[in-house]
UniProtKB/TrEMBL annotation:
Matching Pfam families: GH16_XgeA
Species this protein is from: Candolleomyces eurysporus
GO biological process, one term: glucan catabolic process
SUPFAM superfamilies linked: Concanavalin A-like lectins/glucanases (SSF49899)
Protein name from the UniProt record: GH16 domain-containing protein
InterPro entries noted in UniProt: ConA-like_dom_sf (IPR013320), Glycosyl_Hydrlase_16 (IPR050546)
Length: 216
């Protein structure tokens, strides 16, 4: 898939505007609406910004962005360079299919900005030189090409929903040593989402590029 970067980043993506399949309190909006409402842009650094609506209070859902690549791929390496990822109580961001996927299985790698392998920067990625993956599902007992096909890459940020809403009262999980109910003083995720728009100032993606390499 061509490099998605700079002013043309949003070309080649479809904007999902149906109800959230994970039951989050978001209304996914189209590109024109996102730009008009200030939650979608290319910033001065040439990076793609996808935000969540921060109106102080809302009676229902907050506006958000979900995009899907128009192109599909079967196997390969997906690299996403993010300057900032959404975070905060009630926030559930996702970038799907961020896995090396080939005949050996599926693997996920993460590199801090100061240790990105030079081969990635040079657009000649060599995963076999990257060391241990953060997560790996080997193909020894499961052929990826039997169960995974015609994939899209997807960005989205939802609020509450099946996962973030479900762990609202949970404590002791990574990144949430104290429960969000304790941290915010709100008994439910839904009530917090609707009443505290300022809490979502950090609920945004800033993405330098997405590159998908397919095996030949």
């Amino acid at each position: 898939m061509p490099l998605q970067q700079g002013e043309t980043f949003f070309q080649g993506w479809d904007f999902f505007t149906s109800p959230d399949p994970t039951h989050g309190l978001v209304d996914y909006i189209d590109e024109a609406s996102g730009r008009r409402d200030g939650i979608l842009e290319i910033n001065s650094a040439g990076n793609a910004i996808m935000r969540v609506e921060t109106t102080p209070t809302v009676p229902g859902n907050r506006k958000s962005i979900r995009i899907t690549t128009q192109a599909t791929f079967n196997g390969g390496l997906v690299i996403m360079d993010a300057v900032h990822m959404p975070h905060g109580c009630g926030t559930w961001p996702a970038f799907w299919t961020n896995v090396k996927w080939d005949a050996t299985g599926i693997a996920v790698y993460f590199f801090p900005r100061d240790s990105i392998p030079a081969d990635i920067t040079a657009n000649t990625p060599l995963p076999e030189t990257w060391g241990a993956a953060q997560a790996r599902w080997p193909a020894a007992s499961c052929d990826p090409f039997r169960f995974f096909s015609d994939h899209h890459a997807i960005f989205d940020t939802t609020l509450c929903g099946d996962w973030a809403g479900g762990v609202w009262n949970a404590a002791g999980i990574p990144g949430q040593e104290q429960s969000c109910a304790q941290r915010t003083g709100f008994a439910t995720c839904d009530a917090f989402i609707r009443a505290r728009g300022s809490a979502f100032q950090e609920a945004y993606w800033e993405v330098r590029y997405v590159q998908i390499y397919e095996e030949r």
